[in-house]
Design a protein that fits this description.
Layout (H helix, E strand, L loop, with lengths): L7 E4 L15 H14 L3 E5 L5 H10 L8 E7 L11 H8 L4 E7 L2 H8 L3 H15 L5 E7 L1 H7 L1 H13 L4 E6 L6 H14 L4 E5 L6 H11 L3 E4 L13 H12 L6 H4 L2 H11 L21 H9 L26 H10 L6 H17 L7 H11 L8 E11 L5 E10 L2 H6 L6 E8 L2 H13 L10 E9 L10 E8 L4 E8 L2 H23 L1
Parallel strand pairs: 1-2, 1-8, 2-3, 3-4, 4-5, 5-6, 6-7, 7-8
Antiparallel strand pairs: 9-10, 10-11, 12-13, 13-14
Helix pairs in contact: 1-2, 1-12, 5-7, 6-7, 6-8, 7-8, 8-9, 13-14, 14-15, 15-16, 16-19, 18-19
Length: about 525
């Protein structure tokens, strides 16, 4: 294989990816992502099917006002309706209104689809393919022909499957893309059918795979190694059912491992950011388990693994995380060893020697056995480390709290929290207080909100910086469900001051107490960080 052979990237996140259950891209989302994909260096962006819904029509209208630097925008449609002239076909009429430089057309390859889906003859289907491509070719710069169900069709009736792609090629299609539409093809199926297609037509071949068998990346690689020049896929592997080939995996695999040219090197390092943007626009949490770009891709939990990567990351990492814009992550858990502690302390900017690291490991294992969980609670881990190293500062002391819940005259459940805290005399004197004790009450729609407000009310006069703190997430986990009302509860709280985000954890048989502990540590961590910045 020649070094740096170019593979063309065709992104269908906005069309095929938009068919993912629960994903609804707005017109504004589609425009934003189009601009990002263009900047990334993607050659083709499939924007949607203008004949299928008003949103896609509006998107293509808006895109007429935007000049793309690197990508060519393509609209998508089916071949003409049976027994209809292309110029009289309403769907093709909507396609032309999009005025894109590229048209992507799919046609039936599998004879069973011709009979059962289209309800027509094999000959008419060939005519539909040929006449549609022939009609569109002079009306745009390029026509990409997607051979739907190509691999299933080839297995069922290889002679007819080849006739369909020949019809598209003879009519002037610029690309013949072989689609594993049901996503169930095996690599050997792809190899046999792709070689047959290359022997049959002289047009450049593309590959479009789905992941229903978990083989979309493998099948894409097989086709590329055989000579396919275009790869179609989506960011994050979005798509109907189990999704499409994930370009966030395809791109680094082809470029970093196989020597093909896809994106420029500096753009490959943008993949994690783009992946997270797509998750955000999809209104879904970013999948931590995504290869290359997921948070867990370079997460090392076991102590032996962490000890090794501290010596040489290649011992347990197949590429450098920075290559794709990701980063290494070492969580703290009961699987941790001394190396985990030293690595995490370094990430947090803390200086920990070997002796203290051993003490911290032992304490973490003890606490995790009780139900604590420090993955996602770095702030609690940092405070624990300070405590064991005798460097933890006491910003305030809680002398007691009480929570009362009742139903008001509107039938609403309401909570009231009463707390008593004290601050060091030096702090109280600095703000002109005669006493270092505060006894305050906070109300809220639930006990956690009431406790949070009471804490803020008690401490804001002494520490104005905590005004900025907001709870951004609150998770409760019952650790031993069979214990009933005496079950141990773990509460994870995520907080933010608008600049930083941090997590704290509390564990108790009492959910109120577990929440309280997490809230108190959240404020304490904020105060610690503010002091370090002075």
């Amino acid at each position: 294989m020649p070094d740096k052979e170019k593979i063309i990237l065709f992104d269908t996140t906005l069309r095929d990816g938009g068919q993912t259950r629960g994903v609804h891209f707005s017109v504004e989302d589609k425009i934003k992502l189009s601009m990002e994909l263009d900047e990334l260096g993607i050659e083709y962006i499939e924007g949607g099917w203008p004949g299928s819904n008003p949103k896609d029509i509006k998107f293509f209208d808006e895109m007429k006002k935007i000049s793309l630097k690197n990508a060519r925008l393509t609209s998508f449609s089916s071949t003409r309706f049976k027994n209809t002239k292309p110029e009289e076909d309403k769907i093709l009429g909507e396609l032309l209104k999009a005025e894109t430089p590229v048209f992507t057309i799919f046609g039936k390859t599998w004879d069973m689809h011709v009979y059962e889906s289209l309800g027509t003859t094999l000959e008419e289907n060939l005519n539909m393919i040929y006449s549609t491509v022939e009609y569109l070719k002079p009306r745009g710069d390029e026509v990409v022909y997607d051979a739907e169900h190509y691999f299933d069709g080839f297995k069922a009736n290889p002679e007819y499957a080849i006739q369909t792609i020949k019809a598209a090629a003879d009519a002037g299609a610029d690309w013949i893309v072989l689609a594993d539409t049901n996503g169930g093809a095996l690599p050997e199926d792809v190899r046999i059918a792709t070689l047959a297609a290359m022997d049959a037509v002289e047009k450049p071949i593309g590959i479009h795979t789905h992941d229903d068998g978990g083989l979309s990346l493998a099948n894409t690689i097989v086709a590329v190694e055989l000579g396919a020049k275009m790869v179609q896929g989506t960011m994050n592997g979005l798509g109907e059912r189990c999704g499409n080939a994930n370009l966030c995996s395809v791109i680094p695999t082809l470029s970093l491992k196989m020597g093909y040219e896809t994106l420029k090197t500096d753009k490959i390092s943008c993949l994690t950011r783009i992946s997270r943007l797509v998750s955000e626009l999809s209104n879904k949490p970013h999948q931590e388990s995504l290869p290359y770009v997921g948070k867990r891709s370079f997460t090392h939990k076991g102590g032996i693994h962490v000890s090794a990567i501290r010596k040489n990351p290649k011992l347990y990492e197949h590429i450098s995380p920075e290559t794709v814009g990701n980063k290494r992550n070492v969580p703290i858990s009961d699987q941790a060893g001394k190396s985990n502690i030293l690595q995490k302390a370094g990430e947090l900017g803390m200086s920990v020697d070997d002796a203290h690291a051993k003490t911290i490991v032992a304490k973490v294992k003890e606490l995790e056995a009780e139900g604590f969980h420090f993955e996602g609670a770095d702030a609690s881990f940092e405070l624990l480390t300070d405590d064991l190293m005798k460097t933890r500062r006491k910003f305030f002391t809680v002398h007691g709290f009480r929570v009362h819940t009742w139903e008001n005259d509107k039938g609403e459940i309401w909570s009231e929290a009463t707390i008593k805290v004290s601050v060091p005399e030096s702090v109280a004197g600095d703000v002109g207080h005669d006493t270092r004790f505060e006894h305050t009450v906070g109300e809220g729609s639930g006990p956690v909100e009431a406790m949070d407000r009471a804490l803020h009310k008690a401490l804001e006069a002494f520490y104005p910086g905590i005004v900025d703190i907001r709870l951004t997430d609150y998770k409760v986990r019952i650790l031993d469900e069979q214990a009933g009302s005496t079950a141990v509860t773990r509460v994870l709280v995520t907080s933010s001051d608008g600049k930083r985000h941090w997590g704290t954890v509390g564990v108790s048989q009492n959910i109120i107490e577990a929440s309280w502990r997490a809230l108190v540590e959240s404020l304490e961590y904020k105060l610690k960080k503010d002091e370090e910045c002075r």
